[in-house]
Amino acid sequence: MTAFLQREILPRTVTHKFGESPTAERRFVVSTDGETPQQEVLAMVGIYHLAPHPEWPFLVMLSVTATETDPYHSEITYSYGMTETGGDGGGGGGGTIDPNPLARADVWNFSTGGSNVPAANYFDGAGNATLKPLVNAAKDTFDGVTKTEAELTATISGNRANFDIGLAALVTNSINDAAYLGGAKYSWLCTGISGVQATEMVNDAELRYWQVGVTLIYRQSTHLLKLADAGFNFIEAGTNRKVRCFVVDNGGIVVNSANPMALTEAGAMQAPAVDVRIIERRMHPEINFQTYFGVPPF
What we know:
This protein has three domains: 4-97, no CATH class; 103-225 and 283-293, no CATH class; 230-275, no CATH class. It is mainly β. It is built from three helices and 20 strands. 7% of the residues lie in helices and 44% in strands.
């Protein structure tokens, strides 16, 4: 049976540059009575990943290097730093991180941007309180007009034991069926889900898992399609027939309309002085976002 003798070599080192997180190192020498597997040598010292530094518990052990200098001696260097959560391995620092990747909390990131969307309304007057349909003075609609709308993108990174391809396809391009992350119903859209295989060593055992990424996009006006309720045909009252919309030319003659005409909710031609109605149509399936994606650790 191999005999061990381990001792720490001083001095301990700490490096802290302005604007950066501190790092630290500790070194040990392990003596044995013959050639010994490195795994046994590391177990003799007993410092594992995410173990806190004895003097600065907010620094945790992030990497180890073992060098066998001869059959009877090994030098081990432990490097300490701060994790993404600023956490510790039990020594009383900030948030925590688990050595097992499947036990780690999801990481959320947010960013803002903008995209072009169809324009159906405009802000009337000062302030943002009054929205009106986007029409000209004769109440005719405009075709192909777009506007830039602000969007908030949330990306979720997490680890999973398996990657369910069918579930990923099911929830992609879906919208929230209830209020979620401060947004109203239908304001969040799942635009994509990715999965990448990964491997880590946990307690000296290999663990294979999936690194999963989810992208969600928030739009204040919701992801419903907004359309002017206008067309070239209308439903004739009494007969329920579809009839071509018409106008009166300068000679007083009734002619087919060259432009879409505003319609009532019943499908009749709208009175000329009345603004076109803006209707909403849902194009995406709805799901419970909180069930599938959870919420960030605010």
